Each structure stands twice: as structure tokens, then as C-alpha cells.
Amino acid sequence: MRRKTEVFVSVDVETAGPIPGEYSLLSIGACVVNDPAKTFSCELKPINRNADPKALQVSGLSLDELAKNGLEPAEAMRAFAQWLDALVEKDGSVVFVGLNAPFDWSFVNYYFHRFTGDNPFGFTALDIKALFMGATGCDWADTRSSKMTERLSPRLKGDHQALHDAQYQAELFSLIRTKLLGNR
Predict the structure, then answer these.
(1) N or C: the chain end with fewer CB closer than 10 Å?
(2) Predicted TM-score of the model (pTM)
């Protein structure tokens, strides 16, 4: 029996606050882990005006600007789903990879279900923080990206721009697999 082809996709989001539904998903960045030049990114119109000022400060995004220039959420999620679909063959699947995957996945999952009816990633996500903890035996407090950077020496850095962060996370994930786990 042939195994399904898995395509690991690094995903990062910027949001207006801590939980989906109450706060808006503002931007999505994604790349194929093994080919980080294959990318998807978009900015979305907010679904409401709720915002945690700290979240907006970190991302540098403006609800007013996004209300004018962002994609409608349904359009953004359809485009993301089409991009994901083009990555895999009929028997393949996409695997959501994130740094603090529970947070990013929760927004992506909510938006996919609300605006398209289905999440191409399914109901799971692979968390880089947990992988790093398992590979190194470190404490949870030492799974911050700054600690990973000290240990792994990636070329890229995170900057709270969703696509840049997705590519940075893809590099961290690959380095954990090659340097710490001896995988391909």
C-alpha cells in the first residue's frame, strides 16, 4: 500500500487579538517547507472592529487600511485553499506547520470553516515548539524562537510579517529535522 504524499506547509498569521471569531485574522503567510520560494500571502478585511492594541502594534497592521485594501475573507480563504490544493497530487495531503501552531491553526481553521465550509489541513497541526522540545529535552520556556535561533543558527529572522515569518519558521522546522533529528 502506497503512503499518501505529505506536503509540509509553514503557516503564520497576524491577527487583531487572541481568539478567532471575536477578533479578525488580518494576514496569512505560507510557504512549502521544502521549497520556501513557493508562497502564498494575503491581507484580509477585518470581520469586526475588535482589536487588542498590542496585537496591532506588533504586526503594524491597521484595521482602517485593511478595511479598504484587504481581501474579503471568503475570497482570501478560497485563494488559500486553491493554492494548497495545487501543491498536492490526488492522493496527497497538506500538513499545517506552525510556531505556536495552536494559535495560528485556530484562526485558519475558524476562517476556513466559516468562509469555505472545510479546512484543507483537517483538524491537526504540527507545532514546531513541541517538536523542538521533544528533540532537545528542553523546558517549555526554552521553546521560544530566540532560543531555537541560538541553537540552530538559521539564516532568516522573524519580523511579524506573516510571509517572512512563515519562511523563517520553515527554516527552523527544517533545521530541527536535519540537525537535531537527522531526518531529511
Answers:
(1) N
(2) 0.96
Q: Is 160 known to be catalytic?
A: yes
Give the residues across from 25 on adjacent strands.
15
Burial 61-71, CB ≥16 within 10 A → b, else e:
bebeebeeebb
> Would the CA dihedral through 112, 116, 118, 120 be positive or negative?
negative
| Given 45, 114, 160, 177, the catalytic residue | 160
Helices (H), 33-127: 53-59, 63-69, 73-87, 101-115
Q: For residues 14 and 59, is the Cβ–Cβ distance under 8 A? A: yes
Tens of pLDDT along 39-97?
Answer: 999 999 999 999 999 999 999 999 999 999 999 999 999 999 999 999 998 889 999 99
* Sheet containing 126-127, strands listed edge to edge, beginning at the edge strand earlier in sequence: 35-43, 25-32, 6-15, 93-98, 126-127
Coil/strand/helix, residue 2 = coil
Three-state SS letters, 121-172: CCCCCEEHHHHHHHHHCCCHHHHCHHHHHHHHCCCCCCCCCHHHHHHHHHHH
